[in-house]
Amino acid sequence: MSFFVAINRLDVIINRLERLIAALTGAPIPPEVPAPPVVEIEQALLNNRYHVFEVDLSTAHTDEVLGIQELVKKQGVEHCRYMTIIALPAAMQYRMNDKGASLNDAALGEEWEFEITEIYITNAALAGTAKIHVEFRVD
Question: 76-94: string of b/e by CB count within 10 Å (b at 16+)?
Answer without folding.
Answer: eeebbbbbbbeebeeebbb
